[in-house]
Amino acid sequence: MSPPGVSDRLIERRRRLGRGRWAEWMASALLLAKGYRILARRHVTPYSEIDIIAARVDRVAFVEVKRRATIADAEAALTPAQGDRIARAADYWLSRHPSYLDRQVGLDAVLVTACGWPRHIPNALDRM
Fold it and tell me: Is 103 exposed, middle or buried (0-12, 13-18, 19+ CB in 10 A)?
């Protein structure tokens, strides 16, 4: 039973938001374990929101996080249009942070399920 005045749509939206934040937290933890430093989360540009921006020695990664029931479903949710939007957002971010221009740039994905470890796919969106 929902509290008075709170619609089912609002409750479901809050649940999705919570699951999304949990997935981004899991993705960040995985990237930290792989030696990345998190530079930004949910970074908004005029072109798109970037879920995670992370850097490691000679690489900066612009990461799209997908949470689905299975890894296959999460991978299927990656689209060429998302790759294009994130590439434009990454270019915009790099233009504002020139100290990262000498690094390799990756448009990565981290796929998250409710059970199991997240999966990091470097350059997943470059291939789209």
Answer: middle
pLDDT over 70 at 22, yes or no: yes
- At residue 33, does pLDDT exceed 80? yes
Q: What are the pLDDT digits (tens) for 66-104? A: 999 999 999 999 999 999 999 999 999 999 999 999 999
Give the domains, in start order, of the chain with CATH numbers: 8-121 (3.40.1350.10)
**Closest residue by Cα to residue 64 from 53, 76, 80:** 53
Per-residue pLDDT, averaged over 105-114, amounts to 95
